[in-house]
Amino acid sequence: MNWLAFFIAVTALAFVVQASVMVAMFVLVRRTAERAERIASDVQASITPVIMRVQLLLEDTQPRITSVVADAADISRLARSQAYKIDRVFSETLDRLRLQLAHADQILTGALEAVEDAGKTVRQSVLGPVQSATAVIRGIQTGLEFFRSRRRRHAESSHSSDLPDENLFI
């Protein structure tokens, strides 16, 4: 039974050691919890005024932020409206410019056709009589040459009658 008492003593000793370790752990955990509570209360004491200031700042600036957002929305709406108006004005201006260019093209085309017709008329009125006068002058020259050549032939035929018939060919 000696062994039994020995095992009981060892078990009792282990139980006492285990209990003392548990008490030491409890004391350490409690100290750590107290430190954590102190740190938390210090942090809370430090952060609470900052949070209060931030909250007051947000409460103070919230209407301003709302106003800024509303103004930005109004500015965006006005800018969009103005952009549409500018687009419409540019479109109308371009359409008018196209119409004016087409009208100017028609005017220039008409003027060029009128100048061309006038040139034709001048050519016909000036060159027609000049060609007619040239034809009359050539006719007169041809008639005079014919009479001159006939006189020569007549004078030569009286001098010699053996001229070939080539002189008679015009």
Please explain how this structure is put together:
The chain has 170 residues and is an all-alpha fold. The protein has one domain (2-158). Helices cover 93% and strands 0% of the residues. The chain has one helix and no strands. The chain has one helix spanning 2-159. The N and C termini lie far apart (180 Å).
CA(first)-CA(last) distance = 180 Å
Helix content bin: over 70%
Count of strand segments? 0
Main sheet overview: none
Rg from alpha-carbon coordinates:
65 Å
Number of domains: 1
Average pLDDT, all residues: 86
User: Which shape, going by the Cα principal axes?
Assistant: rod-shaped
SS content category: mainly alpha
Distinctive features:
mainly alpha; rod-shaped; 1 helix; 0% strand
Would you kindly provide a brief summary of this structure?
Helices cover 93% and strands 0% of the residues. It has 170 residues and is mostly helical.
Topology summary:
Blueprint: H1 2-159
